[in-house]
Give the backbone structure.
Amino acid sequence: MATLRSLNPTTAELLGEYEIADAKTVEEAVAEARIAAEWWSGLAAGARRDRLLTWKRAIAAGSDELATLIHEETGKPVGDALLEVMLAVEHLNWAAHNAGTVLRRRRVRSGTLAADQAAALEYRPLGVIGVIGPWNYPVYTPLGSVSYALAAGNAVVFKPSEHTPGVGVWLARAWATAVPEHPVLQVVVGDGTTGAALVGATPDKIAFTGSAATARLVMAACARSLTPIVVEGGGKDAMIVAADADLEVAARAAAFGGFGNAGQTCAGVERVYVERAVYQDFLQRLADLAGNVKTDAYGPMTTPEQPEIVRAHVTDALAAGGRAVVGGVESIREPYVTPVLLAEVPEESAAVTEETFGPTLVVNPVADLAEAVRLTNASKYGLAASIFTADTKRAAALARQIRTGAVSINSVLGFAGVPSLPFGGVGDSGFGRIHGADGLREFSRAQAVTWRRFAPLIDLMRLDRDPVALDRARKLFRFRHAR
Ligand code: NAD
């Protein structure tokens, strides 16, 4: 059996060796998951909730160990890793407590034409969900799909990123101890080949989180079997700073959103548009912060490819006429990248149009907020955005004009810890939603059930339809709709 070596990105130390799941192993896992799904979906909602909460307690109790593992596999500081676990557990808790209510059977009105029918709607599980995860938030991100899929009554086969297999295996072990009856959550380890095998094993839905380029491949493979897919893709999130904003708060948020996790955050800040009146003041404050940030505050680049992408974007931005206010190409000292603050970068350059995923920020001045919104929306991505202003009413109106799945006003990533809110993007940032009630429904099929209550006065649903009945129906119809 081939093995996958998990290496510490900072020290290159070998952290663990894992058997790579080949196509046969993945198929077997999906087949076992089908049996587990029958058992799991047959449990009462309360019984599923109790088991999910047992798993939650195991994750919370083991959070120090899990955070250390995340830190070792990704390089991010232990504190950031712990925050990630805390956020993921908050979502798991919400999904466990709310699935019963959100998905339960409810009566709906049957309407005039079908008055003889009673009608009910229920959200039923899909069966087996294949979850394919990224490395940058190896707990929070995949659990956004895993927790909601499980809570909706599905079994899950999870393929963690090849950079963070240990974290995936830890989560599945904790599950197997908490819910030993059936393998409702399994992990298959490997790279894209294992991911492709998971898609090929035709689970009932794929929840993919990763880059838009891989999403296209996965979606094309899903098309063969018409397997539905939810895509959580990348981002090029913009922050808008209005002239009336608290500039110190905005600058601190830009630094956190841009440099946190070494910029390797799908919904991190990559672009900042500042109203010209306060542009220099904001840029100076941000430069002061950026110049003082040490890489221990956010860790190394997790994969060897990332520094190259950062180098390409910084080089391109400077060649196109952008200005390096803090750092530059010399900031890239693998595996670390010190903060890079670029200003007045042409909107067509890769540093503005492509996901950089490094501790870099592009800050550009705008004439007004209308221009800021226009440039924010000019991206092919649309994951999240933030607006800083003293006028929150105006910000709410601006939010409606922004083409993203989420908007934070006077903070960055404000939505991340609100489990009742859906999360997902538009365009190259993906489609479908995880988290919240929408996240539970994403892993369900709406089932409509009707039952006849009495013989209708005007019965049109028969082959020997009475012309008099049809005429009555026609009059009624015209009276209701043609006036
Ligand atoms: P990636 O696209 O390289 O890989 C994602 C996953 O897909 C990995 O597990 C990989 O093994 C698997 N994969 C690769 N080829 C495959 C194939 N042909 N078939 C099936 N699976 C395959 O992404 P990454 O580098 O791991 O993660 C970073 C990206 O993820 C960034 O673009 C980031 O913005 C995005 N991301 C998005 C969210 C979100 O919620 N929207 C969250 C975190 C990360």
About this structure: DSSP finds 16 helices and 22 strands in the chain. Residues 132-137, 141, 159, 161-162, 191-192, 195-196, 199, 209-211, 214, 217-218, 232-235, 266, 355, 383, 430 surround nicotinamide-adenine-dinucleotide (CB under 6 Å). The chain has a mean pLDDT of 97.
